[in-house]
Write a structure and sequence with these properties.
A 5-stranded mixed β-sheet has the order 3-2-1-5-8, with no helix packed on it. It has a 5-stranded mixed β-sheet with strand order 4-10-9-6-7. The longest helix is centred in the N-terminal third of the chain and has 34 residues. Helices cover 43% and strands 16% of the residues. The protein is α+β, with helices and mostly antiparallel strands and 387 residues long. α2 runs antiparallel to α3 and α6 packs across α10. The termini are far apart.
């Protein structure tokens, strides 16, 4: 009976797992991960194609060596074992044997090293790029700055789409094909152009990785590294931070949108117009309601990862709801925290946000949840604190 109960329990559990998987069934994501994926992501660049070829080339060589070496070894063990009457002998060691097991492995290593070196050198050649973009890792988002080529001067932050964060926090997510890979602002590049990516970080070590492009480069605070890719097809391609960077490591996706030359030029024009329209005059005096509305979107894009939508914080993260520094009438205290960080980086600095964005998010925090202070922080106060 006990055995039957165990079998029944196992079948019930298996049925439950199957039903759960069926309820949350997802499909392959073009440019991203596939269901039950065993091989590399389909290559979208020549470098990625060569990496795939190298992988299988090395695997075949290693497999052949494994089968030959262990085949001879097990054959010898079985054929010449003592139990069938064989006795150990002392065999001569001719020079051709010595030369053989030295020269043959050497030739194999050279045969493996030459194509690998060719690909490695090509991966590091970032010269003659058509477009240069700086990717700055920060907890837990990416900042993109177009510093050379068409689109020069464009800059924006890219963070996980808030709907996916809420889906994850719900405890009962219904994953989509791009679950935890959707961002608010994807990195946009033109097809068939050499794109140089310069990586660095504001806080801890991150890593910029897009498998379909065959690139993975660490982003290290205080250092500059670079890599490159040339996408050969249009579409959406996905990656993630590949360096353990803190509690939100799994919520730091990379989305690269590859457009045709014409569509990319149109995107650049639209982005530049939008940036010009959004350029705030830091001397403008805002009304309370307008700053709160602006601050809500800034909070959702930058602060909710740690302080939650209800402002309560979590674990070592301090709550904003009822916090003394938030409700204090001296705005400079809160401004200092946002500009300089706090607790050895546990609260990062947010100097990369504009003066208006910082003023808006502080005003939002001062007038949301139980913090109904009616206090307002003007952009001019942030400007003064930066100096």
């Amino acid at each position: 009976m006990t055995g039957l109960r165990n079998v029944a329990s196992a079948l019930t559990l298996g049925a439950g797992v199957w039903a759960t998987n069926a309820a949350y069934a997802v499909n392959d994501l073009p440019g991203g991960p596939a269901v039950n994926q065993l091989n590399f992501a389909p290559a979208a660049t020549k470098i990625a194609e060569e990496q795939h070829w190298l992988h299988w080339f090395m695997m075949i060589i290693c497999t052949v060596i494994f089968l030959l070496v262990f085949g001879v070894m097990f054959y010898s063990i079985l054929k010449h074992r003592k139990s069938v009457g064989h006795k150990a002998q002392e065999l001569p060691e001719p020079i051709w044997v010595e030369l053989g097991w030295t020269i043959v492995p050497l030739l194999i290593v050279i045969g493996m090293a030459l194509p690998a070196t060719k690909v490695l050198v090509a991966q590091k050649d970032t010269t003659n790029s058509d477009l240069t973009i700086k990717a700055t890792g920060m907890q837990w988002k990416w900042g993109y700055d177009y510093i050379k080529g068409e689109g020069e001067g464009i800059g924006f932050l890219s963070t996980l789409d808030n709907s996916h964060r809420e889906m994850s926090n719900s405890g009962n997510p219904e994953p989509t094909d791009d679950y935890l890979l959707k961002v608010d602002n994807p990195l946009v590049v033109p097809v068939n152009k050499k794109v140089r990516i310069i990586t660095t970080a504001n806080d801890v070590i991150h890593a910029f990785m897009v498998p379909a492009f065959g690139i993975k480069q660490d982003a290290i605070p205080g250092f500059v590294r670079d890599t490159w890719f040339r996408a050969e097809k249009t579409g959406d391609f996905y990656g993630q931070c590949a360096e353990l960077c803190g509690k939100e490591h799994a919520y730091m996706p990379i989305h690269v949108k590859v457009l045709s030359a014409e569509d990319y030029s149109a995107w650049v024009a639209d982005k530049q117009k939008a940036m010009a329209a959004a350029a705030d005059d830091p001397s403008k005096v805002w009304e309370l309601a307008d700053l709160i509305k602006r601050g809500e979107s800034v909070y959702a894009a930058n602060c909710v990862a740690c302080h939650q939508s209800n402002g309560k914080g979590a674990g070592p993260i301090k709550p904003l709801d009822g916090a003394a520094v938030v409700v204090d009438a001296d705005n400079n205290k809160m401004i200092s925290v946002l500009l300089n960080g706090q607790n050895n980086g546990a609260m990062p600095a947010w100097k990369q946000l504009s003066d208006t964005e910082l003023a808006a998010v502080m005003t939002y925090a001062k007038n949301t949840w139980s913090n109904q202070t009616q206090q307002i922080v003007q952009p001019a106060e942030v400007v003064a604190a930066r100096q």
